[in-house]
Amino acid sequence: MNLKELDLKYIWHPCTQMSDHEFLPLIPIKKAKGVYLYDFDEKSYIDCISSWWVNIFGHCNEYINEKIKDQLQNLEHVILAGFSHEPIIKLSQRLCKLLPFDKCFFADNGSSAIEVALKMSFQYHLNNGSKKDKFLSLSNSYHGETLGALSVGDVALYKKTYEPLLLKSITTPVPTSKDYTKELEILESILKNHHHEICAFILEPLLQCAGNMHMYELGYLNEAVKLAKSYGAQVVFDEIATGFGRTGEMFALDYCSQSIDYICLSKAITGGYLPLSVVLTKDEIYEKFYDSYESQKAFLHSHSYTGNALACAAANATLDIFEKENIIAKNKIKSAFIKTQWESLKEFDFLGNFRNLGMVSAFDIQKSKYQRAGLEVFQRALEKGLLLRPLGNTIYFMPPYVINEDEIAYVVESLREIFKDF
Amino acid sequence: MNLKELDLKYIWHPCTQMSDHEFLPLIPIKKAKGVYLYDFDEKSYIDCISSWWVNIFGHCNEYINEKIKDQLQNLEHVILAGFSHEPIIKLSQRLCKLLPFDKCFFADNGSSAIEVALKMSFQYHLNNGSKKDKFLSLSNSYHGETLGALSVGDVALYKKTYEPLLLKSITTPVPTSKDYTKELEILESILKNHHHEICAFILEPLLQCAGNMHMYELGYLNEAVKLAKSYGAQVVFDEIATGFGRTGEMFALDYCSQSIDYICLSKAITGGYLPLSVVLTKDEIYEKFYDSYESQKAFLHSHSYTGNALACAAANATLDIFEKENIIAKNKIKSAFIKTQWESLKEFDFLGNFRNLGMVSAFDIQKSKYQRAGLEVFQRALEKGLLLRPLGNTIYFMPPYVINEDEIAYVVESLREIFKDF
User: Which residues does the UniProt site feature Participates in the substrate recognition with KAPA and in a stacking interaction with the adenine ring of SAM point to (chains A, B) (predicted)?
Assistant: First the structure.
């Protein structure tokens, strides 16, 4: 059997109706470099979605590679309870300098970081003497797929089947236009009626990635956070996808004028190399858990690989690159170039809702003869050497930051050819 | 500030009442090799608990290091939806040859693997036309700390605080002696009354690690699995801690005469290097999800780093070592040596409930003048250069398999000295 056959014999792929692979290619990748993935026939693909939004400095980045190799010589992993290591101490210090937070609590994947934030907020109120057990989140949100994380999400595709297993949570509508008066009114009315039971308001700031790359107004974000806090709800920003430069600033929080309680980070934190996630919070929250052992106020949550040294080394290398190469400033130029290129596709009248934020661009296929138009684009893009993976009929471009202007132009030109023939 | 001060300033450690570090050391580790961890004063510690039960072939193992370095040259990570890579295909094929399963579904940490198994079992019944939404698990069990995984656990320390956020699940008593008649009766009565709503029976076979290293009879395991299946419940083995040789065989399932539906693996799968987890299941289950896209029967669960290539390379290297060095056979000799050594501590009449299974040994401190006797042992063991991390008053020894007889003897002799002075 060849690799593809072996794959389909033994692997059940994530987020996939496996019967699709009766007609859809399943592509084993042999090697990768920069923005390019290479299959076993030496065909190359530009990774236009950063391999699920994780890769920012290219595949097999030499600097990150070297730092992981160095770390392998010293320490691959040690238990993080009672013990520690230099890469995680450095990383925590750096994150607390980049962000208005004081303490880092680590986990492995994004979902687990969300679970940490939910449990921590619940227990914060409990340690503070008040029993609240509901979470408030935005419509169209996605926060991961473990049951707790799934409970505060709203994308039916991932959630509907599992409803009977989920926590009941409260959803408030995300704005869908520049006028968010109505959405703020609904939020206020929910808070007025439910503030006694709401632990926290959790949201993806400015950009709901899995929710078809929906972008919403900063004005709403600022007002909504202010409102939630005025009603005693803590605020959690899920920046798992938006963090580390994706929205144009280092974090979407950098755009926000309000102070929040928790931020969840993962994905690009290791440059796209290894699973690592972290929840940052403030000392005033930490202190509500800091008591005698007997008080039973400790936050008890752990994963075996929490704070993995190799992943922390990759994360420190990633932060090094941001600093040394002035990435955020450079991305502003690149982002403007992408926007201009992207908007040239407005020539097709069946494409609409063009949107850009930092290093994310999207539009929707609004009319098509194809039942699964996004899938049609996926297949045709593969033929042109592009890994694009639409969300339904939303086509988005979320490349590693190392992509250059020629490559960007090639991606847009390829899309133009695809749509000319659509 | 020194590293320890920086650590305590920026890091909130897992599974820790942070105020304990007012008197308890927090030890940054500089490097590690084999069973030894070295701090920044060059003091060494034998890692008697395999850094939370993950490390099996020693820290900074040269063979695993080389395989990760090789992988870094080719591919660090690629999205696993629609794409794949050789290390994960090989790994999946090898796991399906080692175990009586057909398909591998990957995730990052143990908790996430449990969430996958719960969601998959729930949806299996749904796709099969029956609505069941409860899970059955053993008393004293631990399956992780995301909300779904925590719901099927029973260790109060981790669970009690978060009860209002958890799924209601059903618990059946784990046997506590060689006679398990009563436990089987209770199980049967639960199944009789609740079989219409029970998706699956989830259990840690033979050994409940976080449940104070409680060991129970194989006879119960076989009968309980048989009973559950006869009432239409699927069976999930959580071998996150027990897998990869820990119980003496490659998997605890190897001892079991019954067939099961899902096995969850993590921890030692990468030799203790990187977070990776997998749920294995059978084609007859996979086929219940295999349908047209429109049927909405697909299993939609994903984590960005699912099937990470570096972690899979570490996992393949780990399986190589098992094969090439005939580890399971060698461990049987080592395990017998540990048992003899361990039982020499029976000389202390305040120690009891001595138990061994494969590469796990434990006893309980049954009387002590210390309020937190386990913590007292932890501190004194550190002084003697041992990382032992008791579970309450249970002292256990769960070393990397590369530990040698001299090192084992040193651990036991150190414990003897500690207890002489207790």
Answer: 15
pLDDT band at B161 (very low <50, low <70, confident <90, very high): very high
**DSSP result, B296-312:** T-S-----TTTT-HHHH
Tokens for A187, please give them: 């939020």
Contacts of B7 in chain A (CB under 8 A): 84, 88-89, 92
Pairing state between β A262-265 and A234-238: parallel
Q: What is the pLDDT of residue B149?
A: 98
Predicted confidence at residue A171, as pLDDT, reads 98
Q: Which of B186, B194, B187 is nearest to B168 (CA)?
A: B194
Report residue B346's pLDDT band, with 50, 70 and 90 as the boundaries.
very high
Nearest to A297 by CA among A115, A130, A128, A131: A128
Q: What is the predicted pLDDT for the residue at A301?
A: 96
B286 touches chain A (CB under 8 A): yes
Q: Which residues pair with A202 in a beta bridge?
A: A137, A236
Whether chain A has a CB inside 8 Å of the CB on B119: the answer is: yes
All structural domains of chain A: 3-60+327-420 (3.90.1150.10), 64-324 (3.40.640.10)
Residue segments in chain A with a per-residue pLDDT below the cut of 50: none
What are the pLDDT digits (tens) for A219-270? 999 999 999 999 999 999 999 999 999 999 999 999 999 999 999 999 999 9
pLDDT in tens, B64-96: 999 999 999 999 999 999 999 999 999 999 999
CA distances from A183 to A218, A256, B64 (A): 13, 18, 54
Residue A240, token pair as written in the block: 């798992």
Pairing state between β B103-107 and B277-281: antiparallel
Residue type present at position B131? K
pLDDT at B264: 98
What is the percent of chain A with per-residue pLDDT over 90, rounded to a whole number? 99
Q: Which of A278, A237, A243, A281 is nearest to A101 (CA)?
A: A281
**Candidates A54, A79, A296; nearest CB to B51:** A79
The pLDDT confidence band at residue B172, using thresholds 50, 70 and 90, is: very high
For residue B170, what are the β-bridge partners? B136
Q: Identify the bridge partners of residue B360 per DSSP, sorted by sequence position.
A: B357
Q: Which two tokens stand for residue A155?
A: 């994308």
Cβ of A261 under 8 Å from any chain B Cβ?
A: no
Best CA proximity match to B376, nearest among B333, B337, B421: B421
| C-beta separation of A318 from A65 below 8 A | no
* Encoded tokens for A407: 């490559």
Helix or strand (DSSP H, E) at B248? none
Residue A190, classed as helix, strand or coil, is helix
> What is the distance between the alpha carbons of residues A335 and B30, in angstroms, rounded to a whole number?
41
Instruction: Enumerate residues 6+ apart whose C-beta is below 8 A from A336.
Output: none
Residue B222's pLDDT band (cuts 50, 70, 90): very high
Is B145's CB within 8 Å of A302's CB?
Answer: yes
**DSSP letter string over B211-226?**
TTTEE--HHHHHHHHH
Between B421 and B398, name the one with better pLDDT. B398
What are the tokens at A145?
């797929």
* Structure token pair of residue A80: 């993080």
Supply the mean pLDDT for chain B: 97
Alpha-carbon torsion (A46, A55, B264, B266), positive or negative = positive
- Chain B touched by A281 (CB under 8 Å): yes
Residues 62-91 of A with CB under 8 A from B: 64-65, 68-69, 72-86, 88-89
* CA–CA dist B123, B289 (Å, integer): 8
Element (H, E) at B27: strand B27-33
